[in-house]
Amino acid sequence: MAPPVRIVPLGGLGEIGMNCMAIEADGRIAVVDCGILFPNEPIGVDLIAPDLGWLRERREQVGAIYLTHGHEDHIGALPFLLRDVKAPVYGTRFTLALLRPRLDEAGVAADLREVAPGELRPAGEASPLAAEFYAVTHSIPDACGLAFSTPQGTIVHSGDFKIDPRPIAGPGFDLARVEALGARGVRLLLSDSTNSERPGSSLSEAEVGAALEEAFERAPGRVFVACFASNIHRIQQVANAARAFGRRLALLGRSMESNVRLAQSLGYLDLPAWMPVGFPEARELPPKELCVLTTGTQGEPRSALSRLARGEHPDLDLAPGDLVILSSRFIPGNEVAVGEVVNALCRRGAQVAYEGLRPLHVSGHAQEAEQRRLIALARPEHFVPIHGEYRHLARHAAHAASEGVRGRHLLLDGQVLELGDGGVSVLAEPVPVGRVYTDRDALLGQDIGAMVVKDRRLLAEAGLCIAVLVVDKATGAVIRGPELFARGVAGFEGAEDELRAEALRALDELTPQARLSVEEVQETLRVAVRRSLKRATGKRPTVLPVVLEL
Asked: 334 with 396, same domain?
C-alpha cells in the first residue's frame, strides 16, 4: 500500500489572499506559497498573515517551500515562516528577486534556490514528494504552476493563472505540459478560483497597450498611471505609450521605484536612456512631456496616489487637466477606499479613467472558459478549487462538474483532504488555522492579537467611555465620582446624570467585603455604566473603569 497524501490549506481557501498550502506524505511536508492579506478596514494593522503554528510544530518535517510567483499574497508571509522553518525555498528568477529584499529587511537568512519552468525539485532528502515547475501566464513575470509527484499520483497546482494567447513577454502558458500530465493521469487538480464568477475568457494583456495609447493621445496635460508595482508587463506598456508620445517617465512610490529598478537590472523591463526622469526635474517639464507611474491602486491611505489626491505629496501636485488612469482592478472590499480617492482626484480637477469600456486593465486571473479549459486538459480524477472566497470556490466546483469531474471537494482553511489507496475524503478533524494581525514595519511580524483587533473594532463602532471613581481605602466608601468622559459615544451628552446615578445604585448594592476589592468595584462600575449606556444610546461602547483609593 502507498502512504496517504494529505492536502492541508492554511490560507487562501475562503478569502482572496493569504495563500499557503501544505502537502504531507510519509512524514514529509512540502509547502506551496506563504502569503499575506491586506486588511480592508481601518484597524491599525498593516497586514494579515496565516497562523503558521501547525507548520512550526512540524518544522523538521518541512522539506521544501515552493513559490508559484512573487505577489505579496503568495510570498509576503515568508519572513515570518523562515525565522523558524529552515527549508530550501524554490522559485523562479523574478520571484526570488522580489523575495530577497523582504528577507533582508526582516533580517531573515534563507536558502533560496532558483528554478526554471520544466525543472523538477524534491521536497528534501528521501522525500516521496517532488514538484515540477511549469510556465503559466499571470500579471507578473515568471509565474508558474506546480506538478507534484506523490505516492498517490500526480497533483497539479495551477498557481495564479490566465491563459493569455498573446503574452507581452515570457514563454506563455505551457498547455502542452498540462495536457501531457492529463494523458498520464492526474489524481488531483488544485486550481485558482478568483474569477470563477466571470463568464468567457479574460482579455489578453496586449489589449491594454492600445487602450493606453488612445488615452495618452487625448490627454491635454500630464498623465498619471496607477498600477501594481509588480505588474512589469503593464509598466512596460505604459512606458511604450509614453515613448510613443514623447513623454518622459517619473516614478512615485517606494515599491514602484524599487521594482522598476529591479526589473531593469534583470532585463525584464526595457526603458530608453532618455526616458526616466527624477524630481525636481519632472516638475519643470511641460505637462505634455510627462508621464508619472504611481502606486496606490487600492486606495491605500499612505500610497503615493492617495497623497496626491489629498494634496500632500512632497514631489508633485495635481492640476486641472491632468489625466489619472487606474490601470488595475478594484479588489473586492476596497471599493469604498478607491471611490474616496477617485472623488478626491476629481475635486482637484483631474480627469480619472479606469476599467470600463476601454481595457485600461485586464485581469491576471482566468475566467470560466479558461478554468474549464484547464480542467479539460488535466482530466483530473478529483478537483479542489483554491484561491477565493467561498462563493468563488463553489462556482469553480460547478465548472468542474460541467467538465465531468466526479470527485469535487470544497475545502476551507484547516480542512484536510486525504488521498489514499481506498479513495479521497475530508478528514473529520481539521488542523488549527487562524489569522495573525501584524505591523510589518514596527513589530517585524509580531502578532498584535485578535483581542486587540476586536477591541479596536468595538472602539470604532461604539466609542469609549472612561469612568473615574475615588473611594476610601479603609472602607470602600465613594468619596468622589464617578466622573464620566466619552469619546465617540453618540447620545452621551445629556445622559451623564442618569449614567452616574445608575453606577452609584450598583455600587450601593455591593457588600462591605466587595467594596474593599478594587477589582470588584471596577467590574461593577464597568457593567453598570455599559448597561446604562445601552439603555440610553442603543450602543455598547467600551467602558474603561478607573478606581483610585485615598
From this structure: no
| 181/284 same-domain check | no
Question: What is d(CA 238, CA 2) in angstroms, rounded to the nearest whole number?
Answer: 52
Helix, strand, coil fractions of the chain, as percent rounded to 5: 35, 25, 40
Of 468 and 490, more confident: 468
pLDDT exceeds cutoff 90 at 69: yes
The rounded distance, in Å, linking the Cα atoms of 308 and 524 is 50
Residue 217, all three cell numbers: 493621445
Instruction: State pLDDT tens for residues 107-147.
Output: 999 999 999 999 999 999 989 999 999 999 999 999 999 99
Would you name the residues annotated as active-site residues?
Answer: 192, 365
Q: What is the CATH number of the domain that holds 444?
A: 3.60.15.10
In this prediction, residue 216 carries a pLDDT of: 95
CATH of the domain at 503: 3.10.20.580
DSSP class of 112: E
The last residue of a domain, from among 354, 388, 409? 354
Q: What is the DSSP string of 177-245?
A: HHHHHHHH-EEEEEEE-TTTTS-S-PPPTHHHHHHHHHHHHH-SS-EEEE--TT-HHHHHHHHHHHHHT
Which residues span the domain enclosing 185? 5-200+363-450
Q: CA 471 to CA 421: how far, in whole Å?
A: 72
The pTM for the full model equals: 0.84
**What pLDDT does residue 443 have?**
40
116 and 14, same domain (yes or no): yes
